[in-house]
Amino acid sequence: MKKLLILMMAMVLAGGFVFAGGQQEAKGADEPLKLVLLVKSLGNGFFEAYADGGKEAAKELGNVESIYMGPSTSTAEGQIEIIETLIAQRVDGIAISANDRDALIPVAKKAMKAGIKVISFDSGISLGGRTVDLVPSESELIGRQQVQLIAELCNYKGEVGIVSATSQATNQNLWIEWMFKEIEKPEYKNMKLVEVVYGDDAADKSYREAVGLMQKYPKLAGIISPTTIGVLASAKAIEDEGKQGVVQLTGLGLPSEMQHYIENGTCVQMALWNPIDLGYSSTFILEALVTGKVEGKPGDVIKAGRMGDIVIGEDGLSVMGAPFVFNKDNIAKFAAMFYELF
Ligand code: RAM
Questions:
Q1: Whole-model pTM?
Q2: How does residue 8 score in pLDDT terms, banded at 50, 70 and 90?
Q3: Is position 338 within any domain?
Q4: Which atom of ligand 1 is the closest one to the Cα of 227?
Q5: Residue 325 within a domain
Q6: Does residue 144 share a domain with residue 267?
């Protein structure tokens, strides 16, 4: 017994043991932590920028391998399949932008039981399916701001449609709830949110849905598209339909993708936060959880390099900052920052 104890202590000191769901797995001392950034779907510039932030953090942390993954389309099934594989591979941590906040809970629980640290970011998993949920900004602030931006463009009058991502997306659904609350205020009495359509964060479907909205509502005054894929597709649809200046557009867009449409007036103003910072912060949070620096409880503080201290709040929620508004005065500068990266 004594011998066994000494042997175990020697192994812990030599290489480090990972205790995962009652099982043990040896991890070499120099082996980097495998931290996976699992996004809604591949081929989305927003998430590519996010992955860049992950790589930047991994480089600074030194002991981290940042792995970028996602299904080909934005479905919960695709993400579940990937998580099952990651459990089998025994990665150390997964940060997930969820395609469905509830459907991912069972597989996320399974991963956590296997000793993998799971957090959500951008589009959250419900409580029980993750420790921390890192959001770019308060949902209320994002939702209300989208209505304020379109109201300014439509002179507080007319019908407005929403081109969202998928119907199950946690983040867009929360923001849209706040849009409906904001528009009840008296200053919007001459405005109406007429319909929410779903482009599934696919360029072609978003384009068709935007065209469909303009055809169904001939008097449409504006479109809000709170997704980087959707807002780009909606801009193109407005131009192709010859509705520039008739149908106003706002949303959440990447400066590098929207520069052209901001400068030509199709989308006079839009908002977003920095996806690179989001990926950078997610990686620092995962690393702190995996190495046991924090448990992810409310009040825990994570030192996150150039992002400073990240504080974990109630229900594991951590909020970054306020969204930034882009217009023709600042778009070139921000687009250039993104072009440098890609
Ligand atoms: C798309 C995705 C993402 C969202 C951004 C604004 O890229 O739907 O989840 O945060 O838009």
A1: 0.91
A2: very low
A3: no
A4: 11
A5: no
A6: yes
